[in-house]
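ok so i was messing around last nite and threw this chain in just to see what happens. nothing serious, just curious
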Amino acid sequence: MSNLLYLYGLVPSHEATTTPLPSIKGFDGEGIIYPLSINEVTAFVCELEADQYSEETISNKINNDMEWLQEKAFHHHETVQQLAQQYTIVPLKFCTLYKNPDSLMQTVESNNEKLSETFKLLEGNEEWNLKIYCNDEELKKQVSESNTSIEAKRQEISQLSPGRQFFEKKKIDELINQELENEKNLFCEEIHEKLQKISLFGSIKKNWSKDVTGRKEKMAWNSVFLLPSANVEEFIEEIKLDEETYGVNGWDFEVSGPWPPYHFSSFTS
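result:
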C-alpha cells in the first residue's frame, strides 16, 4: 500500500525555488516535510503510512483522543505558521490528505487559475485579527445613565399612577440590556469600518464564548483583516489609540498577527 500525502500548504514555485525549505519534521514526527513541484505551484507535504493514518483511524483519534488531537493540531498550526513567514502560502486545513501524488497533482492543476489569482491577492499582504471585549456591567451603568431612549422611558413611567409604575419599571432592565447590545454593536461596527479603510478586506467572524477565551469579559466583536504589509504599523497604532481612548469605559482590544491567510484564501482539496 502506497503512502498517503499530508498537505500543509501551496506556494508559488518561484518562491519555493529561491527560498530553501528548512528541515521540518512531518505529521508523524519521523518523516520530513518536502516540496512537491506541480508546474507553477509547489505543495509542501509529508508522507504517512496509509494503514496508520486512514480516514477511519484519524476520525477515531479526533473524536476520542484529545491529547493526540491537541498535539497534532498544534504541529499543523506551527508548521503552517512557519511556512507563512517564508512564502506566499495558501494554507490547508488540519488533516488534508491525498492518496497519492497523482491525485494531489490533478486537484492542483484543476484549480490552477484560481490559485494564481489567490497568490496575486496574498503577495505582500498579511492577515491580522482583532477581538474586542467589553465589561458589560461597566457599560450597562453608562448606558443606564446616558441613553436617551432609557431616559425617555423613565420620564414616561414617572407620569403613570404608582400601581402602573411598579410594573413598568420592571421593563427598564430589559430596555437597558437591549440598548446595551445596540450600543456595543454600533461601537464595534464603527471601529471595524475605520480599520477596513486601511485594509484590502475585512471580515466579521463569530464571537467566542467565555469558555473558549478564558476571560471574564464578554467578546463583543471578532474580525479579520487582510492588510498590505506597509499598513500594518498604522493598523496597530489605530488600535492602540482606541485602547487608550476607550479602555477607561470598559473596552479592551486584542490584536494579533500576522497569521496564515486562512480567511482570504481557499482551495478545493
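not much to say yet. The chain has two domains: 4-123, 126-264.
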